[in-house]
Write a structure and sequence with these properties.
By secondary structure, this protein is an alpha/beta fold. Helices cover 43% and strands 19% of the residues. The chain has a six-stranded parallel sheet with strand order 2-1-3-4-8-7, with helices on both faces.
């Protein structure tokens, strides 16, 4: 399925969830969302989106947290799946964008694509409460809300097409401004 329409489904369903992006998803998500609870982290962040989201889910148990990561990034840190389950969080969804390439570094094929890695199988083996796979946009549109409402932690793998024309990753604005805005959005409401 095409990447941006797949992410648009999530953006349209999103209310007040924290959304953590790194690498390629940081290039695309800001085109669809400028919510104060968006946390985009770029520097040396390959593989860290689920771990950052886990920390936020533990620190903010009353909020739902969504980590958007790529297949190449998840391969760099598969142990995070077991760590998420072991932490006992119920308010975390990990969404993997599986396009078979390391998109922001120039489009090299991932080892996962060559080995035909089953990311849903990894999440199931790690003990995720709810797992789902979508490779069709219409199915994702029809099932996204239901899957995101399932018991957590949730793991969703979206098989998406590469964005081959644009590997370059622009920072989504000044870091300190983004962190200040994010921190203010996390503050308890009086």
């Amino acid at each position: 399925m095409p990447l941006v329409p797949a992410l648009r489904v999530l953006a349209e369903l999103r209310t007040d969830e924290i959304v953590v992006t790194t690498m390629g998803s940081t290039r695309e998500w800001p085109k669809l969302s400028s919510h104060p609870l968006d946390f985009h982290h770029i520097p040396s962040a390959m593989g860290h989106s689920p771990a950052l989201a886990l920390g936020l889910a533990l620190a903010q148990p009353e909020r739902q947290v969504i980590a958007i990561t790529g297949d190449g990034s998840l391969l760099m840190s598969l142990g995070v799946l077991a760590t998420i389950v072991a932490a006992g969080v119920r308010n975390l969804a990990v969404i993997v964008l599986d396009n078979g390439i390391y998109e922001v570094t120039g489009g090299q094929t991932t080892a996962g694509a060559v080995a035909r890695v089953d990311f849903v199988g990894f999440a199931t083996a790690a003990g995720f409460e709810s797992v789902a796979f979508f490779d069709d946009l219409l199915d994702w549109q029809a099932g996204a809300a239901q899957v995101l409402a399932m018991p957590g932690p949730q793991f969703i793998c979206l098989r998406v097409e590469p964005e081959r024309e644009n590997y370059f990753l622009n920072p989504p604005g000044p870091t300190q401004e983004r962190i200040d805005r994010f921190r203010a959005a996390l503050a308890p409401k009086s």
